[in-house]
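agent> call fold_tool(seq_1)
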Amino acid sequence: AHLGGDEHYNYPPDMERFRLNWDSVPTMPSIRAKGAILHFVSYVEGKISRIRHDVLEEIEGLDSVMDMHIYPQFLEEGNEISKTVDIRSDTGWAHLMNDDEIEFRRDYDR
């Protein structure tokens, strides 16, 4: 790929329109939305005695939550779980995004 800057480069006639005008690219992009990837953490270990489906549905229903997944082993009562110690032992994740910073912060803090 040619990214420009070499004025001696001869573009094929049908490709000139694809050349990127670097002067039109802002130094700092504008922020249009806030976003985060959250990883759910287990602070305890032992047997799962209860699944709070109402809480999971509430989180999933937040305006900023674009997608969410709880790993299946954490959705079955009686399963043994360990404390989260790294990314491979988290219990799931959520993708948050919102163009309203106040809503994003509210949902993130929830």
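agent> call fold_tool(seq_2)
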Amino acid sequence: ATDSTNGTDAFIAWCEDNASLQAFNCTDLDAGLNDGVDAATGVPNLPFSVDFCATAQTLNDALVFCAASLEARPFPPSGQGLLDNLEFVRLLCEDFGPLNDGDRGNCTGSK
């Protein structure tokens, strides 16, 4: 198995176990996130695709980047690059809106 396969499996398992994402197709979300990175090099695919931005925004809107959510269900290691670069993603994805991460945005009081 390749790293990307393991990352996909870990993300889908995490997604399916996350109550705030039950309304979404986890396979589609995984594909959208994978669209943002070159699988061979791990380098971001710039400009980001509409699918990648929509997926990142869905996760942001579902409050999965909030401190309380990450404590309860840590983001899969394969997604650490996204967590580390949320501000960058927000800037490069049109109409992304405010970040909901850590204790910012709609994360306030979500504990």
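agent> summarizing second result for user.
The helical segments are 3-16, 26-34, 50-61, 67-72, 80-84, 86-92. Confidence is low (pLDDT under 50) at residues 1-5.
agent> awaiting next instruction.
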